[in-house]
Amino acid sequence: xxxxxxxxxxxxxxxxxxxxxxxxxxxxxxxxxxxxxxxxxxxxxxxxxxxxxxxxxxxxxxxxxxxxxxxxxxxxxxxxxxxxxxxxxxxxxxxxxxxxxxxxxxxxxxxxxxxxxxxxxxxxxxxxxxxxxxxxxxxxxxxxxxxxxxxxxxxxxxxxxxxxxxxxxxxxxxxxxxxxxxxxxxxxxxxxxxxxxxxxxxxxxxxxxxxxxxxxxxxxxxxxxxxxxxxxxxxxxxxxxxxxxxxxxxxxxxxxxxxxxxxxxxxxxxxxxxxxxxxxxxxxxxxxxxxxxxxxxxxxxxxxxxxxxxxxxxxxxxxxxxxxxxxxxxxxxxxxxxxxxxxxxxxxxxxxxxxxxxxxxxxxxxxxxxxxxxxxxxxxxxxxxxxxxxxxxxxxxxxxxxxxxx
Length: 406
Description:
Layout: H1 2-26, H2 31-41, H3 44-51, H4 58-68, E1 87-89, E2 92-94, E3 98-100, H5 114-124, E4 128-130, H6 138-144, E5 151-155, H7 161-173, E6 178-182, H8 192-197, H9 207-215, H10 217-225, H11 248-255, H12 262-271, E7 276-281, H13 284-292, E8 297-300, H14 314-325, E9 330-334, H15 340-349, E10 353-356, H16 358-390
Parallel strand pairs: 3-10, 4-5, 5-6, 6-7, 7-8, 8-9, 9-10
Antiparallel strand pairs: 1-2
Helix pairs in contact: 1-16, 2-16, 5-16, 13-14, 15-16
């Protein structure tokens, strides 16, 4: 009888938690609402790590404002049929022109981490990109990916090339579709929110963070009850897998190869048979070089405003880059996506798809996996609504004529 009473109590607790989560999500009308919820639920240092950018955070702000600065030129009486947000990317179907970006240490938002995001992305019919600095392994992500799920792997160039080739072999065996080489980390940007807090990864629960942990007991309890947070891609390598708290800048300086060149892209071709995308393109010149070097796609990105402050906003680059590459490679706009209307603007300006990371981290921190489902639904319905209101039935109908020039 005692065991039965205990099980019933657990069921009641879980039911109440589901009901509380549902109530929270009903009041979350947009990504900013989810951000506010995440801020309340997370310790300040953890929230700032997710939310912050480099130095004065001017680029972080510009990434979002770039979309706000462009208005629409809606067309009417277009005889719209059913609104269809589907398209293709890298030759495969996409339910919505959105890709979920790689994010490091995702489990600091919620213990399920990348696994929750993989499942939600699969249900939404969009790709998820696992970071080299992810906290769930290639194999774990593949194991929870449902039928038709699309998995990409983001590559940081470790000095040890055998480690990279081993990871890519595992990704290929696990059915990952494409890789993204991140090229904007010749040095880690100065993230001053983290500096002020002395933030480490994984977060240390000790005297310095005890008070903040008491203010956020739910997060602290979940962290203490879950498995240790590690860089899963490097698990088993002494001093490199995040088994102890590390300073991120020092870790990256020590472990990553900062002398990357186009020759390294050619080397990747020898160890990876699938599509290669370059993440971190910030000029038309480098976009053209990417075409010349035969990659399948580029991701216009300034690392979410976390590297070089005063770097260009990706959306500002889209028209000129799209014109320069002239459809020879896929173009993805990464950074600043907060609404479905931003996705519509990115595609209308010339991108094949948009990409975002913070949007699902806020949602994951706010309400776990259900939060990620919620934010992806907000973006899908926002895209549908915007397309209808500008007079576009399909993604193919989106073009620069629907945008008001600056």
